[in-house]
Amino acid sequence: MANQADERQNIIGDLQAWIRQNRDLGAEYYLDEGSRPEVIPVTAVVPEVAEAPAETSEPAAPTPAAAPTKPAPAKSAQTKRIQTKRIQTKPAPATDKEAAFRAICDHFVGETLALIKGQPAAGPATAEPLLETHAGDAAAAMAALKAEVLPCTACELSGARTNTVFGAGNPQADVVFIGEAPGQDEDQQGEPFVGPSGQLLTKIIGAIGYSRDDIYICNILKCRPPNNRDPQPFEVQHCEPHLKRQLAILRPRVICCLGRVAAQTLLKTDLSLGKLRNTVHFYEGVPVMATFHPAALLRNPSWKRDTWDDVRKLHALSEALQAEEG
Ligand code: SF4
Predict the structure, then answer these.
(1) 128 C-alpha vs ligand 1 centroid, how far in Å?
(2) What is the atom index within ligand 1 of the atom nearest the CA of 238?
(3) Taking 80 as the threshold, does the pLDDT of residue 172 lie above it?
């Protein structure tokens, strides 16, 4: 009996953690509207499980009178109901909305592959030669570059920094996320995307199957601008060579700019984020996508839905490029 109770508590805990994670990412869009097949049945399970008295009363039953009054058949029925619902979590047929998104995603990936191959395709982007291949050990090369960049004093931002924030992650990552510049938490810790926005970024990449060890994260500027102001042209001019050398080591399949400022600065454009999203761009020949900065998502949770679509496209593009390479 105790084992059954423990098992049910574990199931409830897993489901609640899973739902919290997806809600944090904006996946409630799919939960609410039923367009993501593998999610739909779970929304039906949790309220019933959470509200069932057997799940909450048993561990807390403190009095001798409480335990005998709970009829054993009720536990069996509850267990059966959970098992039945879990069986219903098999993928359901895709809804029209999910099918429409997949069609858009396929079109986006197809157009990007066509651009990379130099075939005629719509859009303003122009494929340039890929970055020079780094012949040596990527981890050693990245460590050497980091040691070179940390004491950099090429611009005035070096005077106010606590730490240079070089970047972190897999030096051979397929996907690189680039922000604009370190914030206060990053400056204090010397690591990119820490604090609440960094935690949200970890959840976002986790939702498409990546950990922070799978990807690489850095910023255009390696030192924090005062009061988190936008990067200035002089600072970008002096710091961008560091980024280019990082990318030459990484040779990523896809770059994802986090936020308007990062995208505009990297792509040398004044287009709005709304126009930069959903279109592929190129930086030194590497496909670039743009999406919202995690800090902006914390301020405007309604943008998580669009971010969720963006990162799914990012993942699909990375997978397609990997398949193309064989
Ligand atoms: S922001 Fe870049 S260029 Fe300026 S001091 Fe820091 S590392 Fe050097």
Answers:
(1) 27
(2) 3
(3) yes
Q: Please report, as a single letter, which amino acid is at residue 175.
A: V
235 lines ligand 1 (CB under 6 A): yes
Cα of 232 vs centre of ligand 1, distance in Å, is: 11
Short-list 293, 300, 276, CA closest to 198: 293
Residue 252 to residue 100: CA distance in whole angstroms: 29
How many Å lie between the centroid of ligand 1 and the Cα of residue 166? 10
What residues does each domain of the chain span? 2-93, 111-325
CA dihedral 8, 11, 14, 20 (to 10 degrees): -80
Cα of 275 vs its chain's centroid, Å = 20
Cα of 312 from ligand 1 centre, angstroms: 33
pLDDT at residue number 9: 66
Q: Which CATH architecture has domain 111-325?
A: 3-Layer(aba) Sandwich (3.40)
- What H or E segment, with its residue span, contains residue 10? helix 2-24
For residue 107, what are the contacts with CB-CB under 8 A and spacing of at least 6? Answer: none
* Residue with CA nearest ligand 1 atom 4: 155
Which residue in the block uniquely carries the two structure tokens 């340039």?
Answer: 128
In order, the DSSP letters of 141-202 are HHHHHHHHHTT--SSGGGGT-SS----EE-TT-SEEEEESS--HHHHHHTSSS-HHHHHHHH
Mean pLDDT of the region 294-320: 95
176, β-bridge pairs: 216, 255
